[in-house]
Amino acid sequence: MNEQERLFRRIRAMQFAQWELHMFLDTHPNDCEAAKKLEEYRTKTAALIKEYEAAYGPMNETSANTSRWAWITGPWPWETGEEEDA
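Above: the chain sequence. Below: its structure as tokens.
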């Protein structure tokens, strides 16, 4: 396993832990220790993602600072002027 894969696995493990803590807090909303741990994991995950993206590029489309609506700015298939043979 190379360094990129190792870093990616660490990120995914931290994201999984965050999700589990989030679900735990749904049923235990007053657990301050779990809330602190969740925030700690969020901070660590953000740092790992920043490290990954600095070394290997964006992890996903939202990391590339694009709007989730960017797909709508391009021409639609029927607006390209190309006629398809039917």
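Residues 1-56 form one domain.
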